[in-house]
Design brief:
Layout (H helix, E strand, L loop, with lengths): L6 H12 L17 H6 L22 H14 L4 E5 L11 E4 L4 H8 L6 E3 L7 H7 L3 E6 L6 H4 L2 E4 L11 H18 L1
Parallel strand pairs: 1-4, 2-3, 4-5
Antiparallel strand pairs: 2-5
Helix pairs in contact: 1-7
């Protein structure tokens, strides 16, 4: 969703490379980059300075952000029952691992608990967010992030904050390895 959060791209690449299709049930849709233009320039926002995570569910004839949000909803969210959203921290941040989730929902609480984070907090939904639009279509959204600075984890049904330490560059090995580990743990829990 945000072009300046790049560790998730490598996490997705490695998870797909290590995935054993014979041991996997269901369908996996992996989207390593949503905001391609922001990713290419290292910018959080789209060129029109809109936050993609405030543009959902989008529209086919709106702004660039609205069009991307609409396409993402149609092609990725609509066929999904669970979504995992990977995030990395802003430069030079460190935090304690945590999951933020709609803990009133039993399915979301179970998914959030699968991460085994030391802290679980109840989180509310924001208008225009991916989480809100996905929930309206019946999906659960899980975010994996290194730090609290990102807005998407606040919008997810469950968010795991890794707090693996400061990120000196845009991407850090610690955040990458933390996200890989979290994805594998979730996969083992759900298997």
């Amino acid at each position: 969703i945000h072009g300046d959060e790049v560790v998730g791209v490598e996490v997705i690449r490695r998870v797909l490379a290590d995935l054993d299709p014979k041991a996997f049930c269901g369908t996996l849709i992996a989207v390593p980059i949503v905001n391609v233009l922001g990713f290419m320039t290292g910018d959080r926002y789209l060129p029109d300075r809109r936050d993609l995570n405030r543009s959902f569910p989008g529209s086919p004839r709106g702004s660039l952000a609205a069009r991307i949000a609409h396409l993402f909803m149609r092609e990725v969210v609509a066929p999904a029952s669970v979504g995992i959203d990977l995030h990395t921290a802003a430069d030079r941040r460190s935090n304690l691992p945590q999951v933020r989730a709609d803990l009133d929902d039993p399915v979301t609480r179970r998914l959030a608990a699968a991460f085994g984070a030391p802290v679980m907090l109840h989180a509310q939904i924001r208008d225009g967010s991916l989480r809100q639009a996905a929930r309206e279509q019946g999906a659960k959204v899980i975010a994996i992030c290194n730090t609290r600075g990102s807005t998407i984890p606040r919008e997810a049904d469950a968010a795991l904050y890794l707090y693996v330490g400061p990120e000196i560059a845009v991407a850090s090995t610690k955040a990458y390895l933390g996200q890989i580990a979290a994805c594998y743990l979730l996969g083992l829990y759900l298997a």
